[in-house]
Specification:
Layout (H helix, E strand, L loop, with lengths): L1 H7 L1 H18 L4 H7 L9 H10 L15 H20 L3 H14 L15 H15 L8 H20 L2 H17 L12 H18 L8 H13 L3 H17 L3 H16 L9 H13 L20 H8 L7 H21 L3 H15 L8 H15 L2 E3 L6 E4 L12 E5 L8 E5 L1 H15 L1 H4 L3 E6 L2 E6 L4 H12 L6 E6 L3
Parallel strand pairs: 1-5, 6-7
Antiparallel strand pairs: 2-4, 3-4, 5-6
Helix pairs in contact: 1-2, 2-5, 5-6, 6-7, 7-9, 8-9, 9-10, 9-11, 10-11, 11-12, 12-13, 13-14, 15-16, 16-17, 16-18, 17-18, 17-19
Length: 509
């Protein structure tokens, strides 16, 4: 279709081709075959197709021969992404020399790190390629036998870091320290005669800069457990066991934020192993981390019996979990506890839905929404998926006007009138150039609160109810004709802050 569109609108067709290459490279499926299946023999007068074909089929060609695909930073980003995919394919086929050359060409094309500040929601390709290249130089010494290529790469990275410090660009400073830290960590270079040329120095500064960024602006929050784990391994390697013990625990907390339970448990066990060697005082949050890991692991073990009232394993409000996450004895940051509580409740709601326990799903999902609504950040893309699942549970029972505008992701969603009065969260993915804003509409929040309050009221929770919400106005359709029940339902809904009007209608039999 793209080649047909080219005959009528060349500019639009070229834009579509860039988008196709962008999606293909980010998904990892771009290849000669996929390119050939896209394009017919229709003659394009621009260099777009010819150069893209060269990028895919002859990636070793020098980048100085390209013109169209290097004419602006977006095209350069996509071209570098394409080369990275092709290079990775060669590496998977045991062709490290070719992969290294292709990565080198991709690095020449890729936009500079600073350019990504003006490119919304783009992974920083130069950062990824630098780490890949350094890894190849280390793992395949024949590619760089005298170490000259690595030295050139290292010098360039330090020059860039110095420039970022001169510009006081904290985000770029953080990325520079991160790249160098990861490169040195793979090499096991924990100490050095020149102080900055080791992983511990760079990782400490990367993490310190990240904390400074977050303190300046909450939208910069991002868990970095992989950096913490590398740092813990570095401390352990140089016999700084006390520091390694504490850092492994920090990594475990970060992995829980990113929903990486196996890695969280692994880091926790590594910390315990260090403690067992002696000479370390027990961390005050050790038991808290273990309890959270255990609770989250147990969700996978839940069966249908847990949602049957006659079963000894029946769970309805999970008082033990509520007690755990509302207790002040955990000794962890309150926002962190709420993020974990949100994940647990949402995942319990998924389990309830899986086994057809609709009432329990409503309770867990809407309680999860209550827990997270006043927070300012989410910690993983899994949390966005959780919000979407909560939305699906809610709209099964309450019809929301303009249901396609309940949850959205945009860089600046707070300026969208469809989300006026709603809630917003920031999600910062380390590889992306900018944080993403997730928004939930005010009617969705009203609906969630209404369902949650009805679920918690024994007189109403057993009833089959349907309702609708439109711009803060609520209509409740109820089978039960008791005046007392109607009054109770009306009172509960009116108590939800922001609800403008409540109408109760008896459903026709």
């Amino acid at each position: 279709m793209i080649e047909l569109a080219y005959e009528s609108n060349k500019t639009l067709a070229e834009k579509a081709l860039v988008n196709w290459a962008d999606i293909g490279s980010s998904s990892g499926w771009i290849s000669e075959e996929s390119l050939q299946s896209l394009l017919s023999k229709v003659k394009w007068t621009s260099g777009a197709v010819e150069e893209l074909s060269a990028l895919v089929s002859k990636p070793e060609i020098e980048t100085r021969h390209f013109d169209w695909w290097v004419s602006n930073r977006n095209r350069r980003h996509v071209a570098a992404s394409v080369l990275k995919v092709i290079g990775s394919d060669h590496l998977s086929k045991a062709r490290p020399h070719r992969a290294a050359h292709i990565y080198e060409q991709a690095l020449i094309i890729a936009p500079h790190v600073a350019e990504y500040a003006r490119m919304e929601l783009r992974p920083i390709m130069s950062m990824q390629i630098n780490v890949e290249l350094a890894s190849l130089y280390y793992r395949y010494r024949e590619i760089d036998p005298d170490g000259r290529k690595f030295k050139d790469l290292e010098r360039k990275l330090f020059d860039e870091k110095a420039m970022h410090y001169a510009e006081r660009d904290l985000e770029s400073i953080h990325r520079s320290h991160t790249i160098l830290g990861l490169i040195y960590a793979e090499r096991g270079q924990w100490t050095s005669s020149w102080r900055p040329a080791n992983a511990i120095f760079q990782l400490e500064h990367a993490l310190g800069t990240a904390k400074k960024l977050e303190s300046n602006d909450i939208r910069n929050f991002k868990p970095l457990p992989h950096l913490l784990r590398h740092l813990a391994e570095g401390y352990k390697a140089i016999n700084k066991n006390k520091e390694a013990y504490a850092t492994y625990f920090e990594a475990a907390l970060g992995y829980l934020d990113l929903d990486s339970l196996k890695q969280a448990e692994g880091s926790f066990k590594d910390a315990i192993c260090l403690f067992s060697e002696g000479g370390i005082s027990r961390a005050p949050n050790e038991k808290s981390i273990k309890r959270i890991i255990d609770v989250r692991k147990q969700i996978d073990l839940i069966t249908a019996d847990h949602f049957r009232p006659e079963s000894a394993d029946y769970i309805r409000t999970t008082k033990q979990i509520e007690k755990l996450f509302t207790s002040t004895s955990l000794g962890l940051d309150p926002s962190y506890i709420k993020r974990q509580y949100f994940k647990v409740l949402s995942d319990l709601g998924d389990k309830a839905n899986q086994f057809g326990a609709i009432r329990e799903a409503l309770y867990f999902h809407t309680t999860a929404l209550e827990v997270i609504k006043d927070e300012k950040v989410l910690s993983s893309m899994d949390d966005v998926v959780r919000l979407d699942k909560i939305k699906n549970t809610v709209i099964r029972n309450i019809e929301i006007d303009d249901s396609e505008k309940i949850i959205s992701m945009e860089p600046n969603l707070e300026n969208n009138p469809n989300y006026a009065g709603g809630e917003f969260w920031w999600l910062n993915i380390p590889s992306e150039s900018q944080p993403i804003q997730i928004g939930a509409s005010s009617d969705f929040l009203f609906a969630g609160k209404i369902i949650n309050r009805i679920c918690k009221e024994p007189t109403l929770s057993a009833l089959d109810f349907k309702a609708s919400v439109q711009k803060g106005k609520v209509t409740l359709y109820q089978d039960h004709e008791s005046l007392e029940v109607m009054q109770l339902a009306t009172s509960l809904i009116k108590s939800v802050h922001g609800v403008k009007e409540v109408t109760i209608k008896i459903k026709e039999k």
